[in-house]
Amino acid sequence: MVLGIIALLGAMMVVTGLHWASMPPSRVETIDVKTVHLKGEFVESNLGTALGPDGKVTVRLIAQQYSFVPQCIVVPEGMPVTFRGTATDAIHGFVVGKTNANTMLVPGFVATFTATFPKAGEQLMPCHEYCGTGHEAMWARVQVLPRDEFLARSRGGERMSCVPR
Ligand code: CUA
User: Fold this and answer.
1) Among 39, 37, 41, which residue's Cα sits nearest to residue 50?
2) 48 to each of 34, 51, 144, how far by Cα in Å?
3) Is there a contact between 144 and 124 (Cβ–Cβ < 8 Å)?
4) Average pLDDT for consecutive 10-residue bins of the chain (165 residues)?
C-alpha cells in the first residue's frame, strides 16, 4: 500500500513536470535588453502614462539599479490602468501602496497587468525584489488623480508623469 502511494506520487511528479516543461505559460512577452533604451516601446519619450484613442490608460515604466523611470506615475481614479514594465539590469519588482498592483520586473521580459485605483491620493511604490546595495532606496510614487483632472491633463495625448522632464 505504502509503496503504491509512493509510486503514485512519483508518477504524478513526473507527469506534471513533463506537462509544464512542454507547455510554457501561454503569454510570455520578451524584449531585447541591449536595445530597450534605444528603440521600441520603452524608449524614454514613451515612458509614463498614456491615454489611448480608445480611452485605455497604459503606464509604461522601466526599473534599473536603483530607480524607476518615471519616478512618479499619474493614474486616474476608478479607471482600469494597464501597466507594462521591464527591467534593464537586475530583477526588480514593485507594489503600489496597499493595492493589489504588484509585479516582478525581469530583464528580457515585459511584465503586464491591469489594476484599478478606487481612491484619489498618493501612494508609495517601493521595489520589492532585492536588487543590490541600493535596493532600500529604490522607490517611486503613484499619484491617483480624480478622473476629470486626469482626463483634462491627458488631453494632449502626451506621455504623462508627475516629474518635470
Ligand atoms: Cu530594485 Cu530592489
Assistant:
1) 41
2) 21, 10, 14
3) no
4) 96 91 75 91 93 91 95 94 95 93 93 94 95 95 94 83 72
**CA dihedral sign of residues 65, 66, 72, 73:** positive
- Give the number of the atom of ligand 1 that is nearest the alpha carbon of residue 66: 1
CA of 38 to the centre of ligand 1 (A): 22
State the residue for C-alpha cell 491617483: 144
Which atom of ligand 1 lies at the shortest distance from residue 93's CA?
1
Q: What percent of the chain has pLDDT over 90?
A: 76
Ligand 1 site: residues with CB under 6 angstroms?
A: 63, 66, 92, 127, 129-131, 135, 138
